[in-house]
Amino acid sequence: MPPMTTTGDISYRTAGYFSKQLLERSQPLLVLDKFGQPKPLPAHSTRTIKFRGYEHLPNQPKALIEGVTPQASKPTFKDIEATINQYGDWIELTDVLADTHEDPLIVEFSAILGEQAAIMRERITAGVVLGGTNVFFSGETAGAQATNRNGVNKPLTLELQRRVTRMLKRQLAMPITSFVSASPNFKTESVLPSYVAICHTDCEADIREMRGFLDVKDYGGGYKPMPGEIGSVEGVRYMCTTVFEPWADAGAAGSGVLSSAGACADVYPVLYLAKNAFGSIPFNRSAGGKSPIVPMVLNPNVPRGGDPLGQRGSIAWKMWHGAIILYDLHMIRAEVAVSSL
User: Fold this and answer.
1) Region 249-259: what's the mean pLDDT?
2) Per DSSP, which regions of the chain are E strands?
3) Which residue has the higher pLDDT, 192 or 7?
4) Residue of 193, 180, 228 lying closest to 207 (CA atoms)
5) 56 falls in which pLDDT band (50, 70, 90)?
């Protein structure tokens, strides 16, 4: 009898292959997760992970006096704790399906499980970061600008983006300079400094209509498109994902905008991010750390407790994940309507 492993009744080599396939399929689907401050999952630790951030030092001019050593500045920091939770799912596999199916089922199922894991992970992170307190609303009723969600009835505009970026700059929010790549080794890649905006794919047409929009195909010099990127407007790079779902009929009545029920506008979040605005556990294993995602396979045709004929097997995954807002002032959510085209 082969030795028992944590991945079921497959070898570590096969488990490693399955894990690699699952990660490679899921990583390109992660849009939001690429821009969080990474905090690797430590081995043999608690469910609480601590993120530490240092505050800006005082920057008022400090004149020096000859022969007098000035008082040293003391860095201040804040620790923010995030609780991680475990998530997962599995697919049942019968002996009949395994014996008669012409496709390699482990490969096929690892692909769809990888997609599921990525989207589930994005939803978890989105649920955290979309809860930020800095919000701008795109809408107007009877000449008055919208001040809450139920007043939204206008698409995203360049003027609204400028209000957002002005606020970020006022808070000394640094542009993003790197992201987690979709390569097999999941390393970070450097990019030219910019703010990043993440939105639903329904917003794409309105973004392309903004003055000064530059399509990724027209990037030159050091601007390398990031996965999911459609283009930029005045240095803000836009990414699209279906995970950023709208609040149906949550806005005000408006003309020429999408509405689920046909009366009030659907409201879409557009999240503008600066560097280290939020933290999350990276999807890959860190040096000396623990892998956040674990694949598990039980092959059919293997007798085991409760299944003496080996009629059932399974392919599964589980992961640890958590996310937390680190600097609320370094992320802004714009709530907008979308043109009905």
Assistant:
1) 95
2) 37-38, 48-54, 77-83, 85-94, 135-137, 140-141, 144-145, 176-180, 188-199, 213-215, 229-233, 236-240, 268-273, 278-280, 293-298, 312-321, 323-325, 331-336
3) 192
4) 228
5) confident
Residue closest to 32 by CA, chosen among 96, 118, 145:
118
DSSP per-residue letters across 225-270: PPTTEEEEETTEEEEE-TTS--BTT-S-B-SSB--SSSSBPPBEEE
- Alpha carbon distance 40, 45 (integer Å): 11
State residue 7's pLDDT score: 42
Cα separation, 269 vs 253, in Å, equals: 18
Domains of the chain: 12-53+79-128+285-325 (3.30.2400), 134-279+327-336 (no CATH)
End-to-end CA distance of the chain: 63
Name which of 118, 136, 138, 98 is nearest 310 in CA terms: 98
Other Cβ atoms closer than 10 A to 194? 17
Q: Predicted confidence band at 29 (pLDDT cuts at 50, 70, 90)?
A: low
pLDDT tens by residue, 126-178: 999 999 999 999 999 888 899 999 999 999 999 999 999 999 999 999 999 98
Is-above-0.90 flag for pTM? Answer: no
What are the two backbone dihedrals, phi and then psi, of residue 302, each rounded to the nearest 5 degrees? -120, 110
Please state whether beta strands 188-199 and 37-38 pair in parallel, antiparallel, or not at all (unpaired): unpaired
242-266 exposure pattern, b = at least 16 Cβ within 10 A, e = fewer? ebbebbebbbbebeebbbeeeebbb
> What is the predicted pLDDT for the residue at 10?
46
Beta-strand pair 323-325/85-94:
unpaired
What's the rounded mean pLDDT across residues 288-315? 80
Q: Which DSSP string do the residues of 14-32 spell out, in sequence order?
A: HHHHHHHHHHHHHGGG-SG
